[in-house]
Write a structure and sequence with these properties.
There is one protein chain. About 40% of the residues lie in helices and about 20% in strands. The chain is α/β, with parallel strands linked by helices. Strand 6, helix 7 and strand 7 form a beta-alpha-beta unit. Helix 4 packs across helix 5. The longest helix is centred in the N-terminal third of the chain and has 17 residues. It is globular and about 45 Å long. The two termini are about 20 Å apart. About 45% of the residues are buried. The mean pLDDT is about 95. The protein binds pyridoxal-5'-phosphate. The site of pyridoxal-5'-phosphate (PLP) has 13 residues, from strand 8.
């Protein structure tokens, strides 16, 4: 696994340099969903420090089994409001806030724990009916409302473009997310910082890095195919 991870890190670095970016500005979220705790342990031993999970229950078992590791967990899946409590408990960054209702619940749960929860707003960049995320037309209003919650800090945007077998086809969607980020950042909404862009997966992360990703979420290239 170490060799695979080093190869990916090399590709991220090369993509950043091609775009004139600092490679240190791109973080790697190792997406460990469906893979056992032991695989995460191996990846951590190879130097990875941030892991992404999609399902609260699955994540909880793994996080508990790995509580001796000094790693950070990000929630990247669709989050139901009734699970917000657990997400706030275990995750340093929630990538997938897509409604005021969810933001309100995260805020409430974070307040109970005396925590300010870092979140990203998920954007449904191609308006796909099967994907969650705010539409472009809803994004500004959602940012403004969520920014009003005291125990949430909006750090940026996340997206998952349509699936293509050709990564270049995803590029325009990554560029579009970056433009939305710049637009929202330019509004200067209090409580909103737009430093983070979470985009790019196994099949397309180099294009995402070239277009400004600060988090790439990579599963298959690290852990192998999911069952
Ligand atoms: C599963 C998943 C990933 C990782 O996908 P790979 O193609 O395996 O790298 C990234 N982001 C999200 C939101 C996911 O659900």
């Amino acid at each position: 696994m170490k060799g695979r991870i080093q190869k990916i890190q090399g590709r991220i670095e090369a993509a950043a340099l091609r775009a004139g970016r600092d490679p240190a500005a791109v973080g790697l979220v190792a997406v460990s969903k469906t893979h056992p705790a032991e695989a995460v342990r191996e990846a951590a031993a190879a130097g990875l420090t941030v892991f992404g999970e999609n399902y609260v229950q699955e994540a909880r078992d793994k996080i508990e089994a790995l509580s001796d590791l000094d790693v950070s967990w990000h929630f990247i899946g669709h989050l139901q409001s009734n699970k917000a409590k657990y997400a706030v408990r275990w995750f340093d960054l929630i990538h997938s806030v897509d409604s005021v209702k969810l933001a309100r619940e995260i805020d409430k749960q974070a307040a109970k724990r005396g925590k300010v929860q870092d979140v990203l707003i998920q954007v449904n960049i191609a308006d796909e009916p099967t994907k969650s995320g705010a539409g472009e037309d809803e994004l500004e209003a959602l940012c403004r409302e969520a920014a009003g919650f005291e125990n949430i800090r909006i750090r940026g945007l996340m997206t998952m473009p349509p699936f293509f077998d050709e990564p270049e086809k995803a590029r325009p969607f990554f560029a579009a997310l970056r433009r939305m980020r710049d637009h929202i950042a330019g509004l200067g909404i209090e409580g909103v910082s737009m430093d983070a862009l979470s985009m790019g997966m196994t099949g397309d992360f180099e294009a995402a890095v070239e277009e400004g990703a600060t988090w790439v979420r990579i599963g298959t290239a690290i852990f192998g195919e999911r069952q």
